[in-house]
Design a protein that fits this description.
three-stranded antiparallel β-sheet; mainly alpha; single chain
Length: about 400
């Protein structure tokens, strides 16, 4: 309208409206920014735990809240946009001040979250809003449980609490519903980052102790009892321990005993056939079947590796054809599981992995494992390259599962 040539008689009125409307636009923009930050902060400071941790910021937010409510009350009373935004000085003076105060609150909150993340590093993989929610629930452990899958654990998705002492955790569950009892009950007392670290330690210790027992059990129990009598992760490890020990022993004796490698190959094949026979049963539960299929997938590769060693007439445990395999050992001297790939030894990380399906190992994934494990051994990074959807991420995650690590996937 201002550019219209017939607007000259109303020029002053027009100029007044231009000023009013641009002021309204600016005020509403500021108001929305303040409102969004206020909503975010209000949710944070309404919880009891964070108010105790940050008393100064809570006090500051109370003042912000009072002033913000003045603005809202004034808007409700006036109910006219122009009169509210451009008619009084309240908005012009108050909004920039509130924004500045809210930014100070935000800064303190970020510093507070950083200290929590430094104390429990898994919090680095949790978004700020989720982390604030978790921290505000800290004094009520059962309400934190739904957040276990928000970047805190690989497969641990639930725990059972003692009926009498509500802060003692007795069992852990995977997403698939597999149950593992803690070796020692874990106490959810104290600050949340402290008891979550206790839970991580308890989980890793439990997995470690179960593996320690499974190393003996794999030779003493029948195959079916062993696979279904242990958690899926442990069953698979047991079969890998057994194959490594048998093949290593056969290679040691191969120079004096010409048939030992063939006998070992037949034993490996017999184990695979026995597992395949179990799959024909119709009374298996879903998790039992997944567990069995995973064992078969991995053992199939181990059988092929054994056949390769026989075909290539390998008779020395230091031969590269044997060293390039993923080899699993329980070391009593170190009281831990060691995984060797070529000349690199990894200590198993004992993360609870639940009932996971594993990739079929092809010559390409084999090469990826060797390359990535060499990089890890030299504290370097690895970058699998290839078209989208060919399984670069999955291969890396599968290597993580082999080493018992928690793998986090995120976009940088």
């Amino acid at each position: 309208m201002a550019t219209n040539r017939y607007s000259t008689p109303f020029r002053d009125q027009l100029q007044g409206w231009i000023v009013k409307l641009s002021t309204v636009s600016e005020i509403i923009e500021q108001w929305l920014m303040v409102q969004n930050m206020w909503m975010y902060m209000e949710a944070v400071f309404s919880g009891g735990d964070i108010v105790k941790q940050l008393p100064q910021e809570a006090k500051r937010f109370q003042n912000i809240d009072k002033n913000y409510m003045k603005i809202v009350t004034s808007a409700i009373e006036t109910q006219n946009v122009v009169a509210t935004c451009a008619g009084s000085e309240l908005m012009k003076n108050m909004l920039p001040h509130l924004l500045e105060q809210l930014e100070l609150c935000q800064k303190s909150l970020s510093a507070y979250l950083e200290t929590k993340r430094a104390e429990f590093p898994r919090f680095y993989f949790v978004s700020d809003p989720t982390l604030l929610e978790i921290l505000s629930l800290g004094s009520d452990p059962p309400s934190v449980v739904p957040h276990f899958q928000s970047g805190l654990f690989d497969s641990l998705s639930n725990v059972t609490f003692d009926k009498v002492d509500k802060t003692r955790m007795l069992e852990m569950f995977s997403q698939q519903g597999e149950k593992v009892e803690f070796e020692r009950p874990v106490d959810a007392k104290g600050n949340i980052e402290v008891w979550l670290q206790r839970l991580v330690d308890g989980m890793q210790d439990t997995v470690k102790q179960v593996i320690k027992r499974a190393v003996r059990n794999v030779y003493e129990m029948g195959l079916e009892d062993f696979i279904f009598g242990h958690a899926a992760q442990i069953s698979l490890l047991g079969i890998q321990f057994q194959w490594t020990a048998d093949t290593q022993a056969a290679l040691m004796a191969a120079k004096t005993d010409k048939t030992v490698m063939t006998r070992n190959m037949k034993k490996t094949d017999a184990i695979l056939r026995e597992m395949v026979m179990i799959t024909l049963r119709t009374d298996l539960t879903r998790t039992q079947r997944t567990n069995l299929e995973t064992c078969i997938t991995v053992h199939m590769h181990q059988k092929e590796s054994t056949e390769d060693l026989v075909r290539k007439k390998v008779r020395d445990p230091t031969d590269f054809e044997w060293l390039k395999q993923v080899r699993f050992y329980w070391r009593d001297d170190k009281d831990t599981t060691i995984i060797s790939i070529c000349d690199v030894d990894f200590e198993y990380s004992f993360e609870y992995l639940g009932v996971k399906e594993r990739l079929v190992i092809t010559p390409l994934t084999d090469v990826c494992y060797i390359t990535l494990s060499q990089a890890l051994g030299m504290f370097l990074g690895g970058a699998p390259a290839g078209p989208a959807g060919t399984g670069k991420t999955e291969t890396t995650k599968d290597l993580g599962s082999t080493l018992g690590k928690y793998v986090v996937v995120f976009n940088c």
